[in-house]
Design goal:
Blueprint (H helix, E strand, L loop, with lengths): L9 H49 L8 H6 L7 E3 L2 E6 L2 E8 L17 E2 L5
Antiparallel strand pairs: 1-2, 2-3, 3-4
Length: 124
């Protein structure tokens, strides 16, 4: 029975750590890329949703929604109206979706009560 139990040699231990290092070296970059791609996709989805809500609110109407009104209509998102846009939380981090007071998307809104003529995109 004592012959079956033996200690791990230094060479075996080195081999185990080498294999673990190779596996980690191959899988870690893939995990980081997947996490980054997920964040980019989430930002894009929130931007698309806000633009769809804005389009729906302005279709056939002469009045533009305010930043506060637009933020309130973003369903499923923890959206908060701020002076220069809508603050949203994605994966625990806060991002600002810019809102503009002109249709060419060049002049940021200055107050949460300002009318939104154009919705920008969350910066990458």
């Amino acid at each position: 029975m004592k012959k079956l139990l033996r200690n791990i040699t230094f060479i075996e231990l080195t081999l185990i750590f080498s294999i673990a290092g190779v596996v980690g070296g191959v899988t870690l970059p893939n995990y980081v890329d997947a996490a980054q791609q997920s964040l980019v996709q989430s930002k894009s989805e929130v931007t698309r949703m806000a633009k769809d809500v804005h389009s729906g609110m302005t279709a056939g109407k002469r009045e533009l929604p305010s930043v506060t009104t637009l933020a309130a209509h973003l369903q499923g998102e923890a959206a908060v109206a701020k002076a220069t846009g809508i603050s949203v939380r994605i994966d625990g981090a806060e991002y600002t979706l810019p809102t503009y007071s002109n249709r060419s998307c060049t002049v940021l809104t200055q107050k949460a009560e300002d009318k939104v003529a154009c919705v920008g995109s969350i910066p990458s």
